[in-house]
Every structure is written in structure tokens, then in C-alpha cells.
Amino acid sequence: MKRALVMVLGLAICGLFALAADAPAELKFDSKMGAVTFPHKTHVDKGVKCSACHHTTKDGETPQKCEACHDKAAAKDKAPKLSDAVHNSCWGCHDKALAAGQKSGPVKKDCKVCHVKA
Ligand code: HEC
Ligand code: HEC
Ligand code: HEC
Ligand code: HEC
Questions:
Q1: Cβ(105)–Cβ(95) under 8 Å?
Q2: Between these two residues, 7 and 104, which has the higher pLDDT value?
Q3: CA–CA separation, 50 vs 36, rounded Å?
Q4: What pLDDT digit, counting tens, does each position of 65-100 carry?
Q5: Is the CB of 67 under 6 A from ligand 2?
Q6: Which atom of ligand 2 sits closest to the CA of residue 93?
Q7: Which of 94, 108, 114, 116 has most ligand 4 atoms within 8 Å of its beta carbon, as the pocket-test mutant?
Q8: Cα separation, 66 vs 88, whole angstroms
Q9: In terms of pLDDT, which residue wins out, 72 or 3?
């Protein structure tokens, strides 16, 4: 029992280090609407769990690109197409936070807050 607990803690700690090393600081998405800068690290620092966005990856494992399952052109095998999946993830969470009276990032109607044309 005790040993199992130590194992679990050990794994959790290794996991944390692996995560810190893996998580990118900032990501850019190009799009016709204008490029989107995504402050990845800000989210991690605010305590958003990896798995809240990387929904098919257990915390501690290296996530796959969304595009591995979400096709750019169309929904496939129940997975919505890439831009829908990413949008629903981003504004899904922000809209919910706003509705709950919490601070949030840009919501659905804030197209131009996220998409900035050069
Ligand atoms: C929270 C930030 C955010 C908001 C708000 C947002 N978008 Fe996006 N949008 C993104 C991201 C990130 C992508 C890139 C997804 C991908 O890789 O396809 C994207 C992709 C797109 C694309 C696909 C572009 C392409 O070149 O294939 C379109 C079109 C688009 N957004 C339109 C909109 C419109 C219209 C709104 C407002 C109703 C909006 N977006 C609001 C973040 C946002
Ligand atoms: C708020 C949402 C969100 C959170 C929280 C989040 N990520 Fe991400 N992460 C993304 C998105 C979106 C991408 C872009 C995926 C893509 O390009 O397909 C990404 C990309 C990555 C990449 C790949 C970078 C690359 O260019 O290939 C890694 C590695 C990663 N995240 C690790 C993590 C880890 C580890 C955590 C937790 C410590 C985490 N992420 C938390 C949304 C998030
Ligand atoms: C291993 C495959 C896989 C990867 C990688 C993946 N997804 Fe998904 N995703 C799916 C499948 C399958 C569904 C539909 C079934 C479900 O809801 O689980 C889905 C559903 C979703 C949904 C809910 C559907 C909706 O329109 O509300 C969102 C949001 C989403 N994915 C966002 C993302 C984002 C953002 C990433 C990358 C950070 C990502 N997914 C990576 C397979 C994947
Ligand atoms: C699971 C929840 C969640 C998801 C998913 C999520 N965010 Fe956020 N976002 C947050 C929180 C929490 C904050 C911080 C609000 C605050 O405290 O100011 C935030 C803040 C932001 C900010 C403002 C950062 C700043 O420095 O003020 C931007 C821009 C942003 N998010 C973009 C995105 C984009 C783009 C995506 C999708 C790729 C995304 N977010 C997905 C929860 C989320």
C-alpha cells in the first residue's frame, strides 16, 4: 500500500518534469482570417490542465497534434474538422468562464482579438 503510494507520487513528479520540458511557450496558427497567437504557457501557469485541451492525452504524456485526428478539410470518424475542434476548445472554455463570472480569454464574438491581420 505504502509502496504503491510512493510509486504514484514518484510517477506524478516525473510527469511534472516531463510536462515542464515539453510544453511550448507560445504557438502561432496561420489562417486566412489573420494569424492567431496562442499563449500556451500562460494557460499552464493559470493552472489549466494539459488534458483540458489535449483531451485524448493523459496528463504526463506527450500530446499529439490536434491534426492527427482532426482533419483540416472535414469531420472524420466523429472528430470535428480542425478549425471547429480548435474553436470549440478555445471559446468553449472562455465562454463558460465568462458565463460563470470568471476572468476569461477572448470569447466567440472576439474574432479579431484572436485573429490579427499583419
Ligand atoms: C479564442 C481565439 C479565437 C477566436 C475568438 C476566434 N478564432 Fe478563429 N481560429 C482560432 C485558431 C487558433 C484557429 C486555427 C485553427 C487551425 O489550426 O485550423 C482559427 C481558425 C479559424 C478559421 C480557419 C482559417 C483557415 O485558414 O482555415 C476561420 C475561418 C476562423 N478561425 C474564423 C473565425 C471567426 C469568424 C471568428 C469569430 C466568430 C473566430 N474565428 C474567432 C482562434 C480563434
Ligand atoms: C488551453 C489549452 C492547452 C493547454 C492547457 C495545454 N495545451 Fe499544449 N497545446 C495546445 C494546442 C491548441 C496546441 C497546438 C496543437 C497543434 O498544433 O495541433 C498545443 C501544443 C502542444 C505541444 C506540441 C507543440 C508542437 O509544436 O508540436 C506540446 C508538446 C504540448 N502542447 C504540451 C502540453 C503540456 C505538457 C501541457 C500541460 C502542462 C499543455 N500542453 C497544456 C493547447 C493546450
Ligand atoms: C487521438 C485523436 C484526437 C486528438 C489528438 C485530438 N482529438 Fe479532439 N476529438 C477526437 C474525437 C474522436 C472527437 C469526437 C468524439 C469525442 O467527443 O470525443 C473529438 C472531439 C473534440 C472536441 C469536442 C467536439 C466539439 O465540436 O465540441 C473538441 C473541442 C476537440 N476534440 C478539440 C481538440 C483539440 C483542440 C485537440 C488538440 C489540442 C484535439 N482535439 C486532439 C479525437 C482527437
Ligand atoms: C480549458 C480552458 C481554456 C481553453 C481550452 C483555452 N483557454 Fe485561453 N484562457 C483560459 C484562462 C483561464 C485564461 C486566463 C484568464 C485570466 O485569468 O485572465 C485564458 C486566457 C487567454 C488569453 C489571454 C491571455 C492574456 O495574457 O491575457 C488568450 C489570448 C487565450 N486565452 C487564447 C486561447 C486560445 C487561442 C485557445 C485555443 C487554442 C484557448 N485560449 C483555450 C482558459 C482556456
A1: no
A2: 104
A3: 20
A4: 999 999 999 999 999 999 999 999 999 999 999 999
A5: yes
A6: 1
A7: 94
A8: 13
A9: 72
Cβ neighbours of 7 (radius 10 Å): 10
Would you state the cell numbers that stand for residue 67, as one nine-digit string? 491534426
Place of cell 493523459: 58
User: pLDDT tens digits for 5-49?
Assistant: 444 444 444 445 444 457 899 999 999 999 999 999 999 999 999
- Phi/psi region, residue 45 (left: phi>0; alpha: psi -120 to 50; beta: rest), is alpha
Q: What distance in Å separates the CA atoms of residue 32 and residue 9, rounded to the nearest whole number?
A: 45
Distance between CA atoms of residues 45 and 80, nearest Å: 28
Cell of 8: 504514484
